[in-house]
Amino acid sequence: MQKTESAVMGVILAGGLSRRMGGGDKGLSFLDGRTILERIAARLRPQVAALFLNANGDARRFKALGLSILPDGVPDFPGPLAGVLAGLDHAAQAGFDEVAVVPCDAPFLPADLVTRLRAGTQAGRGAVAVSAGRRHPTAALWPVHLRTALRKALVEEDQRRVETFLRRHDFAEVVWPAEPFDPFANVNDPGGMAEAEALLAHFPAA
Prior knowledge:
The protein is of the alpha/beta class. It contains six helices and nine strands; from the N terminus they run E-E-E-H-E-E-H-E-H-E-E-H-H-E-H. The chain has a single domain (9-202), classed as Alpha-Beta Complex (Spore Coat Polysaccharide Biosynthesis Protein SpsA, Chain A), CATH 3.90.550.10.
């Protein structure tokens, strides 16, 4: 897809090991008849010019999503920052200036996520989502020019905490209301799945 001048590339971060869900791919867990990843892709795809999935291992397990896969370029599963870096590297090659990243376990993401993140920041600065007083470091807008600093942090400094990197580079905070439900509620353990199912029972359109 050819980008427009203001287009944003999107990346769903699914390169982790899902230890709290007992291993496997938590994004492939079903929630009311659809996988969590299907829900996220459907929510994010209209907001970006091109959408990719950051994942490692056999890509065939994600075939139903119809997304191109971006594996980590840094070995040994160093965490979400490796997925972000893979996205930034691909975006640089494709001519994008910004990348919106989202986690693979948040099925209720806002339909205005990218628009509001972009409106809440200034040129050259990133933005991170906040709800209920909590920052969501894997729901953020990244300027592509940070890829050099990110590679140094990962490879040379072994810096793996997303929040640490965001604070170091002064990402702007963009706040969402958490009522009637938190749009960044995640499903990273069996308890989170039960809560998501209960939420859908009360808000079927979520």
